[in-house]
Specification:
The protein has one domain (about 1-295): Carbon-nitrogen hydrolase (Nitrilase/N-carbamoyl-D-aminoacid amidohydrolase). About 25% of the residues lie in helices and about 25% in strands. It has 9 helices and 14 strands. The protein has helices at about 15-35, 60, 75-85, 140, 170-180, 205-220, 270-275, 280-285, 290-295, and strands spanning about 1-5, 40, 85-95, 100-110, 115-120, 150-155, 160-165, 185-190, 225-230, 230-235, 235-240, 245, 250-255, 260-265. Helix 1 (about 15-35) packs parallel to helix 3 (about 75-85) and helix 5 runs parallel beside helix 6 (about 205-220). Bound molecules: 4-methylsulfanyl-2-ureido-butyric acid.
């Protein structure tokens, strides 16, 4: 399967969804001309990364959420992708009919059907206003923890799963999908390069991004497609370096800019099967009887 990562440059708070979708359509067209079958868009792709602001007004918050998918602004994206015969994945803020709010990704097949949905589980940041920060990271305020686990589906003969941004730093994310035979993990991210509680780590933001995704890919014998919303967005620098990573752990394509940019690679599931049958033959080598602490304990408890 030929997969494209459609990195987006910054989206201003004042940008309309129509304008963002126009940029996404341009990337879809480029993807088609470069032979792609599936296009991966970032986390919260339709708006600016709004958890950077403390908001109390319900209508102001609601304006960042989608109540239907496709909705009035995204129908054009679904229609054009179907016309081009392309599948795509898309991150957006979801408000359900019964009022729940999630940071969500969907996978849409080439026929325009939503075939997989994921709701972000590892919500980073904080829930209360922390005025000392130069910008907030209020995902714990605006979203509930996802309620779907990490489902996978078979799409065009490839086992596909999804996760979102901070999820990529946690090995459990990939392993739960690895245990379902995942061959292609799609993920979008909005990663501020400056992390106010730990500024001494800022210069390693790019390294940690690739380290997490390369380890997840290798240890679970899967392709990983990590796609950024990048660049200076409302005064906040977001990491770029979108990458397509092979089951060997090697980066085979990487963005060179922090703007709208397409990266493309052929993601051959045969390579997954090679690693899954040898070094990472789970059935042969895993020892779950020794892994109980992973599900029984959340925080670390060192010896007295
Ligand atoms: N969007 C998102 O999950 N960003 C986080 C920032 C972590 S610092 C609070 C990330 O893991 O990249």
């Amino acid at each position: 399967m030929i997969v494209a990562g459609a990195q987006l440059g910054p989206i201003a708070r004042a940008d309309t969804r129509a304008n963002v979708v126009k940029r996404m359509l341009a990337l879809l067209h480029e993807a088609k001309s470069r032979g792609a079958e599936l296009v991966v868009f970032p986390e919260l792709a339709l708006t600016t990364f709004f958890p950077r602001w403390w908001m109390q007004d319900a209508a102001e918050i609601d304006a960042f959420f989608e109540r239907e998918m496709p909705g009035p602004h995204t129908t054009a994206l679904f229609d054009e992708a179907r016309r081009l015969g392309l599948g795509f994945s898309l991150g957006y803020a979801e408000k359900t009919a019964d009022g729940h709010r999630y940071n969500t990704s969907i996978l849409v097949d080439a026929g325009g059907r939503i075939v997989l949905r994921y709701r972000k589980i590892h919500l980073p940041g904080h829930a209360e206003h922390e005025p000392w920060r130069p910008f907030q990271h209020l995902e714990k305020r605006y979203f509930e923890v996802g309620d779907l686990g990490w489902p996978v589906t078979r799409e065009n003969g490839v086992v596909v799963g999804m996760c979102i941004c901070n999820d990529r730093r946690w090995p459990e994310t990939y392993r739960v999908m690895g245990l379902q035979g995942v061959e292609l993990v799609l993920l979008g991210y909005n990663t501020p390069i400056h992390n106010p509680p730990a500024p001494e780590q800022d210069h390693l933001a790019g390294f940690h991004n690739h380290l997490s995704m390369q380890a997840g890919a290798y240890q679970n014998a899967t392709w990983v497609v990590g796609v950024a919303k990048a660049g200076r967005e409302e005064g906040c620098d977001l990491l770029g370096q979108s990458a397509i990573i092979a089951p060997s752990g090697e980066i085979v394509a990487m963005a060179a800019t922090v703007g709208d940019e397409l990266i493309v690679a052929r993601c051959d599931p045969e390579l997954c099967r090679n690693y899954k049958a040898t070094m990472f033959n789970f059935a042969k080598h895993r020892r779950p009887e020794h892994y109980r602490l992973i599900v029984e304990r959340t925080g670390a408890i060192p010896p007295a």
